[in-house]
Amino acid sequence: MAEISGEKPRGLGSHLGGHLRENGMLVALVAIVFFFTVVVRAMIDVDFLSAQNITNLFLQNSYVIIMALGMLLVIVSGHIDLSVGSVAAFTGAVSAVLTVKLGWPVVAVIPAVLAVGGLIGAAQGYWVAYWRIPSFIVTLAGMLVFRGSTLWLLGGQNIGPFPKAFQGMSNGFVPDLLGDWDQALLGIERLNGTAVLVVVAAALVLVWLGLRARARDAEFGITPEPMGLFWARNVVVSAALIFVGWKLAQFRGLPNVLVVLTVLTVLYAFFTEATTPGRRIYALGGNEKAARLSGINTSRLTFLCFANMGMLAALAGMIVTARLNSATPKAGTGFELDVIAAVFIGGASMTGGSGRIIGVVVGALIMGVMNNGMSILGIGIDYQQVIKGLVLLVAVIFDVYNKNK
Amino acid sequence: MATLLEMRGIGKSFPGVRALDQVNLTVETGEIHAICGENGAGKSTLMKVLSGVYPHGSYEGEIVYEGQALALRGIRDSEERGIIIIHQELALVPLLSIAENMFLGHEVARRGVISWPRAYQAAEGWLRKVGLSEPPSAIVGKLGVGKQQLIEIAKALAKDVRLLILDEPTAALQENDSQKLLDLMLELKAQGVTQIIISHKLNEISRVADRITVLRDGSTVSTIDRGQISEDRIISDMVGRDMAHRYPERVPAVGEVLLEVEGWNVWHPEQADRQMIRDAAFTVRKGEIVGIAGLMGTGRTELAMSLFGRSYGRGHQGRVRMGGREVDVSTVPKAIAAGISYVTEDRKALGLVLEEPILKNISLANLAGIAVKGILDKRREARVAEDYRRALAIRTPGVQQKVVNLSGGNQQKVVLAKWLYTDPQVLILDEPTRGIDVGAKYEIYSIMNDLAAQGRGVVMISSEMPELLGMCDRIYVMNEGRIVGELSREEASQERIMAMILRTTGKAA
Predict the structure, then answer these.
(1) pLDDT category of residue A183 using cuts at 50, 70 and 90
(2) Domain ranges of chain A
(3) Is pLDDT above 70 for A60?
(4) How is the beta sheet containing B257-267 ordered, strand by strand?
């Protein structure tokens, strides 16, 4: 009798109940974008969804999303990393010293700085994984240590400007490989054909993957998502994607950062959902003792999660530095909070063991769109923080309420 | 005797489940009334109705207590009337003292200021009544589970209990603590405290109970008077079929030696000079079921876990051979590779990732089996899980179900499936039937027999001697970290095992 209780009756309502979180996040994101589009237009007569602003949105928030990918792994494994903001600042400073002071070429700076970040993460992960020092403490210490180290390294000064090649990491765009024939064909003066082609292809791939997953669900005997809902979601997502691509194509094309972001997102989504180590991280966070008794080297996995986090923090640090075109002692202040908030808004559990990459990206975009929209409206930083805090609280309350229901 | 409590036609539904249906229960004043039933039969739900956890109006039927209809709004209401329930998971605050715990919520206080001298004095009186000599200032967390259980009872007595409900009170207790508790129950009965006991342990029930009500699938099956109580009768009422054979038939086909352990010594992980396993040696043959008997805390689990990738203790010494060749079992992956699996006694804490679905739990110890170059083949994973679901009869709507939603017996099958998928030659099963109901136990026994028939070696650690005697070809007896004897199926009996334990107690070098 008790065994039947888990069986879900079919139907749209019950399906939404089961997947309320994932779809709810998407609806929230669309609603927030819609809200700002209308309000920004009404209040200050500016196009919120202009090509320039969309580009800005990604440039401004890329570092949050990049670090959130790594933070998800850390949080899924049952830990937390408070040091990412300071580590980003420190690695940014290192990249400045290497590039500006020592004149290293970009191709050498990038791997060197990533390695520094990885080492920092590994050093913190070592204490957490092998000495079982609580990650909160270790990374709180790291937060102070690397903020101080940044000040020391920069001597309290800003270092810049950077050569064009380094700035390209943040301000660069993918050149239009198609030439100008498409513009002539469509009669549009400025159009980056590559951008359009890429997003259309991406939308098609997404739909194809979705269909494949549905087919697999059916094979496993999972009640599939109702067809209507599936297409509704895919149409919205694809339309949004193509809209964004179209807008970007009329501006300067695809930002380099967006490409990096997309590649990393796909990579981490694949890693967490379809690989052996990815699966093991979830098991480790869900029940560490059971995972260890199942032959999983839990300490090494924890260690690697932190090392990976450090490396992504270094990447984010370089992008921020490139964007500001200068390494500053104050860079990255408060990043850790934005990143952690994005992960929890994205549906990860505080106790570890659950959370998805796609949720985290949507969570980070929600935070990003709100930051951007509120700034355009000229809402003060005071209100912005209050509102962001409340959004985080509501998202997590929603989660807990859903789980208890 | 007068009737103290009558529950008539009780029904209770949860979304999708009819948990109770037409349950009748009559408890006479001054009796000990046992309630039996498989897991999920509705015992706990019934007691929650009785104690006001489910308030009046959320269930059907009526409750008459001391001649009056009861309409409880909450657990406070029931406590005021002297109905007190002691749950399986004890509700004591480990960092507080006995006295502080005893009067928690009912402090001996005037206008919010607690009078500690009076509280301690009162606490001492109640402790004496339950036969505890600890001072009331002792910190609860430092006492054993047996003593904590007694404190719970003292706490109930302090609240002027008239109907005491004990939910599986001996589940976590050792044999001698259990006996003490049962004695106390009889003593309380002599003092006129009416009691309801929920238990799986039929020998205990037959010892203390005046009458037994058996529940099955949320309905009352029968109420048996003391004179007619027999284990077979209770079992057949519980499972709804005659269990002439509590252990499935098996013709042992024992082959050559598979696992040999020699001179195995292990020390406590924190106290470096405390030796937990002393010079243990044993063998397991192909197709053999070997039992390890002993009281709780004698090192059976420690022996098994230390062999399984040194998951317990430090300073390991000794040799392990598989099929005559010495093997390295210094880490869990190496032990698995050597063909050893260990099925833990604590499946929730150590065996399962509860929030993950069945299929992910089954593949966990052998992800390589469903992966190509580190990339998971989810089709194969689902197929593997589906195969085990069928082979082990795991009752679930589907393998995507989270294991937290399964009953104890089905969870145990998932853990077994996880280890079977590593294709072990020797399986060490630690208390494989703990906390699961009679029907599921039989299924676990059948699975064990199948494993032996496939030529694997099975080691069974159990605190229930009848189960060891019923299942094993050979039994090792452990006491105080040593293996103190070995008995063949023919030689083994409860008396002999106990005698071996008693004769060797306190004689360790």
Answers:
(1) low
(2) 21-33+46-172+255-404, 177-254
(3) yes
(4) B275-285, B257-267, B314-322, B325-326
With an 8 Å Cβ cutoff, are B397 and A7 in contact?
yes
Global pTM reads 0.81
How far apart, in whole angstroms, are the C-alpha atoms of residue B341 and residue B332?
A: 9
Which of B344, B371, B418 faces A276 most closely, judged by CB atoms?
B371
What span, in angstroms and rounded, lies between the C-alpha atoms of B15 and A357? 33
- The encoded tokens of residue B89 equal 């998971």
Residue A300 at interface with chain B, using a CB cutoff of 8 Å: no
| Burial degree of A5 (CB within 10 A; 0-12, 13-18, 19+) | middle
Report the side by side order of strands in the sheet with B474-479.
B340-343, B426-430, B457-461, B289-293, B474-479, B482-488
d(CA A18, CA A339) in angstroms, rounded, equals 26
Chain B contact set for A292 (CB, 8 A): 311, 332
The chain-wide mean pLDDT, for chain B, equals 88
Kindly report the nearest CA distance between residue A50 and chain B, in angstroms: 41
3-state secondary structure B29-97: CCCEEEEECCCCCCHHHHHHHHCCCCCCCCCEEEEEECCEECCCCCHHHHHHCCEEEECCCCCCCCCCE
How far apart are the C-alpha atoms of A201 and A197, rounded to whole Å? 6
pLDDT > 70: what percent of chain A?
90
Tokens for A126, please give them: 């070592």
Indicate the residue of A7, A277, A293 with minimum beta-carbon distance to B350. A293
Reported as a pLDDT band with limits 50, 70 and 90, residue A198 is confident
Architecture per CATH, B3-239:
3-Layer(aba) Sandwich (3.40)
What one-letter code names the amino acid at B431? E
pLDDT above 70 covers a percentage of chain B that reads 97
In angstroms, the CA B244 to CA A105 distance is 83
Chain B residue numbers with beta carbons less than 8 Å from the beta carbon of A287 are 349-350, 352-354
- Partnered with residue B457 across adjacent β-strands are B426
Sign for the pseudo-dihedral over CA of A48, A51, A56, A57: positive
- Domain B3-239 and domain B257-339+424-504, same fold? Reply is yes
pLDDT band at B501 (very low <50, low <70, confident <90, very high): confident
Q: Which two tokens stand for residue A285?
A: 């966070």
Among A163-167, A181-185, A270-274, whose mean pLDDT is lowest? A181-185
A87, A150 in Cβ contact below 8 A? Answer: no
Q: Which residues of A touch B308 (CB under 8 A)?
A: 293
| pLDDT tens-digit map of B36-93 | 877 667 888 899 899 888 998 889 999 999 988 888 888 888 888 899 998 877 788 8
Compute the nearest-CA separation of A286 from chain B (Å): 6
Q: Which class is B257-339+424-504 in CATH? A: alpha beta
A257 touches chain B (CB under 8 A): no
Separation of alpha carbons B103 and B114, rounded Å: 10
User: Residue B465: beta bridge partners?
Assistant: none
Please give the share of chain B, as a percent, with pLDDT higher than 90. Answer: 49
Domain ranges of chain B: 3-239, 257-339+424-504
